[in-house]
Amino acid sequence: MMREPYMVRAAGLPERVTVYEVGPRDGLQNEPMVVPVEVKAEFVARLAAAGHRVIETTSFVHPKWVPQLADASELLAGMERVPGVRYPVLVPNERGLDRALEHGVQEIAVFASATETFARKNLNRTLESQFEMFEPVVARALEHGLKVRAYVSMCFGDPWEGPTPIGQVVAVGRRLLDLGCAELSLGDTVGVGTPGHVAALIGAFGGPSRLAVHFHDTYGQALANTLAALREGVTVVDASTGGIGGCPYAESATGNLATEDLVWMLHGLGVETGLNLESLVETSTWLAAELGRPSPSRVVQAMGTGPARPTTDRNVKE
């Protein structure tokens, strides 16, 4: 089995791409079994060892809504931070920001919706009133010297409303950037986007400045959509080790773009990532064993060794 792709440098692509790793947060948040905090800490450490320089580590959302991440404080207090690695966390509101500041977090993310229905289901807010929640969070974070990223979900389509108007996405995204967010991640939460749609949306923002992309692979379009974004000049791509994850408030959403699949494509195109593919595959194989199920990543399936089995009864608990 091949362990590295044959590299052919393609014209019109960035020389280097930052892979914004979301596995510990967006990847694990929808797992039905509670993953022990020591496993999460090892997961983050393995990702840093594989070359990741941005690892979204956890979220300070209320445990009632995402029980999997109820151990955020314990994880941040106990894990080892590697110099040069960024460890952003998701915060939903001012209380979440308070907790992040207590733990010395240097970078946060907020999570917005591009559609009315999803804003109500995910945030219990209207499309307009969601900004009342974000404004004080972003303002206070900036006052404390934190870097702020904004996610916008349902940028390409919403299972309740259908295709999301491009102008509506741009309006939401620009308001978040105007608040002071340094980066805006455009999320295809249910994986319905196509390359032409991706190019049109990025173009409607006036170009790739401060934009990142976050694709789910529900319809098998994540890599194609990523390539379209790269051709438009985007240089930050969200991905989840092993392709784990989904959205707990959108049942049709399948896993995130797998980091290994992304890295295989990027390395084949001659785009630098700073990531070691073998180490990523080893990490996903280890994680699959901890979760007790095979990795969804096609590269992990091709390069990994043997089926996933829980290592001991202590690794995953109710």
Secondary-structure map:
Elements: E1 18-21, H1 23-27, H2 37-49, E2 58-59, H3 72-78, E3 89-90, H4 94-102, E4 107-113, H5 116-123, H6 130-143, E5 147-153, E6 157-158, E7 162-163, H7 166-179, E8 183-188, H8 195-204, E9 211-215, H9 222-231, E10 236-239, H10 259-268, H11 277-291, H12 298-303
Parallel strand pairs: 1-10, 2-3, 3-4, 4-5, 5-8, 8-9
Antiparallel strand pairs: 6-7
Helix pairs in contact: 2-3, 2-11, 8-9
Determine the structural class based on helices, strands and strand pairing: alpha/beta
Counted by DSSP, the helix tally is 12
The CATH superfamily is identified as: Aldolase class I
Number of domains: 1
Coarse shape: globular
Strand content: 5-15%
Which segments are poorly predicted (pLDDT under 50) over 5 or more consecutive residues?
A: 248-253, 306-318
- Average pLDDT rating: 92
Q: What's the gyration radius in Å? A: 18 Å
User: Total number of β-strand segments?
Assistant: 10
Q: Quote the CATH topology.
A: TIM Barrel
EC number: 4.1.3.4
InterPro entries: Aldolase_TIM, HMGL, PYR_CT
GO molecular function, one term: hydroxymethylglutaryl-CoA lyase activity
Enzyme class: lyase
What does this structure look like?
The chain is α/β, with parallel strands linked by helices. The chain has one domain (18-303): Alpha-Beta Barrel (TIM Barrel), CATH 3.20.20.70. It contains twelve helices and ten strands. Strands 2-3-4-5-8-9 form a six-stranded parallel beta sheet. Strand 3 (89-90), helix 4 (94-102) and strand 4 (107-113) form a beta-alpha-beta unit. The relative contact order is 0.16. Residues 17-281 form the Pyruvate carboxyltransferase domain.
